[in-house]
């Protein structure tokens, strides 16, 4: 089974976001970049499928040269090969999805695995978009997955429960937290990954379909009224929730 | 030119997020017709939607199409073409997030995902969407003739006007039976708990509760409000609560009317998941906890002392608990 795992590099979750000089993107000065947390589940699932079914795991990211760091993490975890699709701008989801779809068409994997969302743009769109571009079925937000021959069965998280679904290979899957427990790469593997080759390629140029007009920081001003724990204070809080905020 | 809203039936009517999507559609319609498309709904389920601006609705019958995700996407794109819709609106729930990207590809349309503000026109909607887990927001528009949008649930308030009739029309899309699709074979519901991302009120507990055995204090407060129970990442990782209750950057993003954080210090990842709540109450014994900086009403003290007293006071007003 040939497995393509798609990962991304994102600002660390503790990053304090500031707007960059273009007014449309973050100021990346001093920002620490990490492997998108959900992509750890995607890489792990790819490795487990390889362990069960044989084959190879190829990991791809679309981004600038510095995104090679996350490919090295995937190599250290056990990915066989790594591909960087060079794109400085990653202007919108469609551009990234098209680049991945083009790679998938070239290398014909049996399954493509994503993390459920990348925590920078949080749009949840790549798995379904790539699948539609290459006319494959897809299963998003997968919390359990099993593949037998060409048959794929999975559970996906929906509001208030889980959906049981069936599909067939080739297929796109996106990993929910809890699908597996990602392994930690061992130090010798981290060292070895540093010298493994990373294939670089460029994607055919497509026009972005979404334009960013501006980036703003949210207005999170709050009432910030602080109370103690006396009976009178609790009476007051409940009265305010009832009469001032009118939420109860 | 028109707007097509993708509707989801639930109970006697539609999901609240469908009414929210219709209200949002009306806000940019300025004369453009608002059409709906729904799978497997009865006319009576559609009747309340008239008050939210739905004039005509295409109804696709039978599970043959609705259980297959790629057929659903193809049917919606075909419906959009049949009513010359330049804008298609979904809720950004599990269904919308799954299907909307496919519809956007089929329509060669830009996709504005998980929007929290909407303006502009039916021909050129302008949207605002949170990024970096709500630490920033982007103003976005599509550069294509048509646009697909998904709207974050609970953010757009559903507003009803005078009731009016909905003209339901059976819609039978062209089916390409050779298309391989994922098929839904069953659904299992979580036992008896309200879904945290859909709830109007959420009470979340964190490490300050000291152990899973103390979560009944949070559950009782939630019961007195009719709220869903949420949890911080720390207590989910510790195995005290299931992952489906986790609020934050690696859990669920919630925007309830009231969010109560109990024993949660307010790590930036948690704040990302709940800071768009309308009213925030925090209970924490550390007066310097970051959660107080995003709270409207903060109570400094011991959660074990405070929660039962808060619960009985709230229960006296709501008549619950």
Specify the CATH homologous superfamily of the largest domain in chain B. HUPs
Q: Which chains have the largest interface?
A: A-B, 85 and 95 residues
Number of E-state strands of chain A: 13
Which H/E pattern describes the elements of chain B?
A: EEEHEHEHHEHEEEEEEEEHEHEHEEH
* Intertermini distance of chain B: 51 Å
Q: Helix-strand pattern of chain A, N to C?
A: EEEHEHEHEHEEEEHEEEH
Q: What is the percent of helical residues of chain B?
A: 25-40%
Distance between the termini of chain A: 55 Å
Helix fraction of chain A, binned, reads 25-40%
Give the low-pLDDT segments of chain B: none
* Radius of gyration of chain B, CA atoms, in whole angstroms: 21 Å
Overall 3D shape of chain A: globular
- CATH fold description of the largest domain in chain B: Rossmann fold
Q: State the CATH architecture of chain A.
A: 3-Layer(aba) Sandwich
Indicate the CATH topology of chain A: Rossmann fold
Helix vs. strand class of chain B: alpha/beta
- Main sheet strand line-up of chain B: 7-11-6-1-4-5-12
Largest sheet of chain A: 9 strands, mixed
Overall residue-averaged pLDDT value of chain B: 95
Shape, per Cα inertia axes of chain B = elongated
